[in-house]
Amino acid sequence: MHLDIAVLEGDGIGPEVVAQSIKCLRSVEETFGHSFTFKNGLIGASAIKKTGNPLPKETLKLCKSTDATLFGALGLPEFDDNPKAKVWPEQGLLKLRKKLELFANIRPVKVFPSLVKQSPLSKTQVQNTDLIIFRELSGGIYYGDKSNDEDKNSATDTCTYTESEISRIAHLAFKSARSRKKKVTLVDKANVLETSRLWRRVVRNISESYPDVVLNCLFIDNAAVQMILNPSQFDVILTDNMFGDILSDQGSVIAGSIGLLPSASVGLEHAMFEPIHGSYPNAAGKNIANPVASILSVAMLLQHFKMNEESDAVVAAVLKSFSKKIVTPDILGSSKYGTNYVGDFIADNIM
Amino acid sequence: MHLDIAVLEGDGIGPEVVAQSIKCLRSVEETFGHSFTFKNGLIGASAIKKTGNPLPKETLKLCKSTDATLFGALGLPEFDDNPKAKVWPEQGLLKLRKKLELFANIRPVKVFPSLVKQSPLSKTQVQNTDLIIFRELSGGIYYGDKSNDEDKNSATDTCTYTESEISRIAHLAFKSARSRKKKVTLVDKANVLETSRLWRRVVRNISESYPDVVLNCLFIDNAAVQMILNPSQFDVILTDNMFGDILSDQGSVIAGSIGLLPSASVGLEHAMFEPIHGSYPNAAGKNIANPVASILSVAMLLQHFKMNEESDAVVAAVLKSFSKKIVTPDILGSSKYGTNYVGDFIADNIM
Ligand SMILES: CC(C)[C@H](C(=O)O)[C@@H](O)C(=O)O
Ligand SMILES: CC(C)[C@H](C(=O)O)[C@@H](O)C(=O)O
What we know:
The first copy, chain A, is an alpha/beta fold. Chain A has helices spanning 14-32, 44-51, 57-65, 77-80, 89-99, 123-126, 163-178, 194-207, 220-229, 241-255, 292-304, 308-323, 339-348; strands spanning 2-10, 35-40, 68-73, 104-110, 130-136, 146-149, 154-162, 183-188, 214-219, 236-239, 264-266, 271-273. The radius of gyration of chain A is 20 Å and the shape is globular.
């Protein structure tokens, strides 16, 4: 198979981790006889520095014209700390998700048996955790009308959802549950928010078309507790953009490091693959960042294109790195292996 | 001192836990020579069932005319599961907070040395945790314009903050930090939300008047992780209504049970004291609910009225119940002590 892949390295540790993913894709190419081409685009702080724009037109065009996008990470603290800034790196990612209509961000959270000890939670709590979060990614408070009125000294964000925005991701979640443990948990704040009440109504209606799947509803405050206390109760979690952002980061506590969790952002026409972690600027250039989240995102990319055997081979190589303890220091504080070495090991073991 | 106290038991386990708090206040009355009068009001599901209104006028009048309100818990699942309901229990609490202008919800999270083992997190992680959350309580997305348009099949919630809403709670947070570890962490999502950017601007300005206090900013997704990984890094957390709801529930994971965490909701004229837990309907009437969150809310009430010795005496009695293992089953699964027995023990040990 031939795939054209847009590569957006972004900021901080982005370039380093993406470099390892490309090694892995090269290895898949060779082992399985595919052909991948990689085309780089600018995004985030590095794009602002070079062009003034966190998402230059060329980048958007590139992502629209390729088969898939591999994204690293973005953001730099110098932008967070400037409340008067008119542009900042995250706007690039948010705009890209919107323009590509990537409405579903799929974030699996698994506990790898060989890493159970790395989780700060107890073994009984986390073992058997195998959940997947379907986070709505192109609507909600991230994209509603906003204002920040310096004169009135007030600011507003608006959260809007329509039935169709909810139903398209809900169907994906129910379909996924069908091939898994047949349980969907809708996370919302229906005792306070009207948008949550709409989510409940729409999702309940849809659930009637999936009689083999059980639907539960949980308030976000309780869900944030349950994710830690008893994560193995979950199968598929379905939630909105903001709640999904919070809950999926919490998933990293279960897995043992935020450097382990991949994601796929999908729409009807486009798909992007990105670690859930940020740009971690303090680690940039130090060869200590964990490349596994990016590499597992590549496994999701391969699966997306039905290259299941290839995807399994990437996951198997990652598991081998765990069992041989070829891991970065976020996993084993005492580890002497760097980003590059771990990337090489995994790429070499894709077979 | 004489205090008139409005008592709103609410639903589920509300009445049972509040009954223990009243025992404790009676004991304080006797031991320290005060006089407290208690006047009951309806709220929540029980108010809806009797009057059709989750916050009957008389209840609001009662809370306005008394010195403080002691609140239990509210909510029943039959209301959550009815998306067409026009009234539901939580509206009573939200309206009460708004009408009493309780703009700051203060939620301390402490790990009691004798309960460290009860936390699902490791001892090294949680020990030394002593943080306090200042959650804005009468603004934000809880109270902005809402709509739910059945024809258009769309719903909207609006989050608005003004400078003055932010600044009044920010001052409380900085003042509290001054008497503590001198650190305020503002939790927001300033890389996405305009309201968060306003929070950052206002809070940064205010921080200049507190040069002895260090201000940090953290994104909510990261904060939700840090609350679990390394809670002892925090001193005072300052955040908006929705993020505060989520983060403070997470605090219960640190403490070991949601049945342990009290809160004070304060405004310029009124104050209400309430456990952070919900109505836990499955436990209602079974004499298993933990009364400690409600009793520690009483300790916050006493402190609010500068009865510091009295407040300390209540806390000391609670600590004694922990060290004697006179605790409910949420703390020690094997515990044979019920709500009533624990309440009696604590009340009897206020001295
Ligand atoms: C960088 C930021 C805008 C982004 C988000 O909030 O969606 C990130 O936290 C994520 O989860 O992908
Ligand atoms: C009952 C509910 C409306 C309430 C809230 O979200 O504020 C509760 O979760 C709390 O934290 O006090």
